[in-house]
C-alpha cells in the first residue's frame, strides 16, 4: 500500500531502514548497501528527506551521516505507517482471520523505536477470542528476525472490560502508554467500561 502512497520505492526503503532500525545515524554508503540501490538515487532521496525535515544530515570529515529527526511532527505517523507495512504488525493484519476474533490489537511504538522491553512493558496487547498458539508463532518469528524480545498479552473482551472497570494497574498502564492501533477504534478501546 505505501508503495502507492510514496512516489519513490527508494525513498520507502530508506524510510523503512531508518525508522524501523535501532541505528541512530547511518553513513550514506551504509544506506546504499542496506537498500541495495545506486548511490545517486539514494543521495537524491536523502536530499529530499532532509528538505522535508524528516532526516538530519551531519558531515564528519569527508563522510556524511544521516539520522531521523525524532522531533519532526510527522515522525510518529510515519513510524506507525511503516510499522503496519512490515514485520509482525503486517502479519497480524494479513492473518487477522487466522488469529481468531480480534476486537482490539494495540502495538506500543516504543518497541519500534528500539526500546528493550522489561517485564513490565507490553509491546503488543490484543483483546478478543484469539488463537494464542498462532499468535505465539508470529511473535517468535518476529523475535528471531529482530533479535529482541517482544512482550505480548491477550485478554478476552469480558476480562478486559472487567479489569478496566476495577481500575486494574496492568490495564491502566496499557491505556496510559502511547499506542498504535492495528485493529479496532482507539476511542472505543479507551472508553470501554
UniProtKB/TrEMBL annotation:
Q: Which Gene3D superfamilies match?
A: Winged helix-like DNA-binding domain superfamily/Winged helix DNA-binding domain (1.10.10.10)
Q: Which domain of life is it from?
A: Bacteria
Question: Which GO molecular function terms does the record list?
Answer: DNA-binding transcription factor activity
Q: Which PROSITE patterns does this one have? A: HTH_ARSR_2
Q: Which InterPro entries does the record cross-reference, listed alphabetically?
A: ArsR-like_HTH, HTH_ArsR_DNA-bd_dom, WH-like_DNA-bd_sf, WH_DNA-bd_sf
Chain ranges of the HTH arsR-type domain: 1-90
- Record-given protein name: HTH arsR-type domain-containing protein
- Which organism is this protein's natural source? candidate division WWE3 bacterium RIFOXYA2_FULL_46_9
Amino acid at each position: 500500500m505505501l508503495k502507492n502512497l510514496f512516489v519513490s520505492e527508494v525513498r520507502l526503503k530508506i524510510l523503512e531502514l531508518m525508522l524501523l532500525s535501532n541505528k541512530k545515524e547511518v553513513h550514506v554508503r551504509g544506506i546504499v548497501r542496506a537498500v541495495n540501490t545506486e548511490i545517486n538515487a539514494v543521495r537524491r532521496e536523502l536530499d529530499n528527506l532532509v528538505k522535508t525535515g524528516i532526516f538530519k544530515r551531519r558531515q564528519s570529515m569527508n563522510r556524511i551521516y544521516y539520522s531521523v529527526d525524532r522531533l519532526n511532527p510527522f515522525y510518529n505517523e510515519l513510524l506507525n505507517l511503516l510499522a503496519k507495512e512490515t514485520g509482525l504488525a503486517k502479519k497480524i493484519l494479513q492473518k487477522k482471520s487466522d488469529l481468531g476474533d480480534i476486537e482490539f490489537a494495540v502495538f506500543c511504538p516504543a518497541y519500534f523505536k528500539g526500546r528493550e522491553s522489561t517485564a513490565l512493558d507490553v509491546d503488543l496487547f490484543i483483546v478478543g477470542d484469539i488463537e494464542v498458539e498462532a499468535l505465539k508463532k508470529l511473535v517468535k518469528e518476529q523475535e528471531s528476525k529482530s533479535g529482541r524480545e517482544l512482550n505480548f498479552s491477550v485478554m478476552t473482551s469480558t476480562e478486559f472490560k472487567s479489569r478496566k472497570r476495577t481500575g486494574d494497574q496492568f490495564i491502566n498502564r496499557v491505556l496510559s502508554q502511547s499506542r498504535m492501533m492495528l485493529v479496532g477504534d482507539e476511542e472505543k478501546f479507551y472508553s470501554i467500561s
